[in-house]
Amino acid sequence: MAVTSEMIKGLRERTGAGILDCKRALEQAQGDIERAIAILRQQGLATAAKKAARVAREGLIEAYVHPGSKVASLVEVNCETDFVARTPEFRALAHDLAMQVAAAKPLYVSLEDVPAEVTEAQHGIFRAEAAVEGKSEAAVEEEVQRRLQTFYQEIVLLEQPFIKDQAVRIRDLITQSIAKLGENIVVRRFARFAIGEE
Description:
The protein is an alpha+beta fold and 198 residues long. The protein is built from eight helices and five strands, in the order H-H-H-E-E-H-H-H-H-E-E-H-E. The mean pLDDT is 84.
């Protein structure tokens, strides 16, 4: 099947990928848009993995204040160059991340930031709860791991479902931006403020 400019344009609008990448993906998928999107997504993951080792020292601090001024957040998002930090796409990502922090109340940026004692305490709680249900040892451990994943999705920013699209995790949102912008992107830190909360 011949790849038309309309097909390339449609794929670009849906993915934000470059023209040549869209053309190659459509040719590889033989004109199937959904397969082309999957191909671009896989390429984006590979690109993101390659860029993860690169140093991200530029970026910006984005503030979000919820209407009513009762909840606000600050997020530091880093990239490799000041040029990318000034792009509308990067600013939109930083804004979305600040909104996520204000709405979803994460406690840590990544799984690596969760203290071992917090994980161990939750593991013990979940194990005790699952053991009471009278399951086998393998079933108890499986249940504990499932509950830990749910726990991490509540407290770890990168593991949370995106508030604008629950099918996308924040980690995946950042990976998509890395593929789109061509630079490593890192959430360095965040702070959340709410009236009356400690």
